[in-house]
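#struct-pred

JT: dropping the chains for the assembly here, can someone run the whole complex?
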Amino acid sequence: MTPKLYMNEVSPAVRAVLMTAKALNITLDLKEVNFQEGEHLSPKYLKLNPQHTIPTLDDKGLIIWDSHAIIAYLVGKYGEHDSFYPKDIEKRAVVDQRLHFDSGLISHILKEIMNPIIYGASMDTSHDFYEKTIRIYDLVETFLVDSWIAGNYLSIADFSLIASISTLNIIIPIDPLKYTRIVRWLHRSEKETFYDANRKGLDKIRNCIQYDYVQVQDRICKV
Ligand SMILES: N[C@@H](CCC(=O)N[C@@H](CS)C(=O)NCC(=O)O)C(=O)O
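RK: done, full complex below.
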């Protein structure tokens, strides 16, 4: 049975899973969750995922949420090789560090940005999004000493961070002169087949948001 993915492609976390599935060449049964109708808060969805987040995976009754857990699971379960999430403990530690960076630092900022888009809620502009995002760009630039985010091989940490950074780039554009490695990494990614799974959701967000991030508070988007 094809694993089901509860999703909405505007979510960066969902797009990380879609890119992983594309890179692994596996098919997921996509179930779109309508946030504006509160589907994620319905008793049925809460039974599946009491934290009411997307993405949520249902693989023959095994329910997993949080994109980072899902993508690691998909590689272990369906990958023909382990290179996207190496079994080598030292390599894996670097991939894990990048994943925790995405999960611990970026996810939180993205959620504050995404909630107004998916719920139509107003954005609290007192948050220092600009400073926080620039700090993230500074750090990601330092990670990129090789072609990919965890070294000279593509990994699930790339899928997570590509989804996040390409989304932040819409809100606070990346300075190409200051962040040359990030820009090269994004361009390199865009040429890969897996990146197709990032495009549609990213375009939807781009259409919702004016380039000035402050204006997000005045926009209510149907996603
Ligand atoms: N760290 C989580 C973040 C998931 C998340 O917060 N998703 C947002 C959409 S971008 C969501 O489901 N928000 C609805 C809610 O929290 O009620 C992951 O990587 O899966």
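JT: nice. The domain at 4-78 is CATH 3.40.30.10 (Glutaredoxin). Confidence is low (pLDDT under 50) at residues 211-223.
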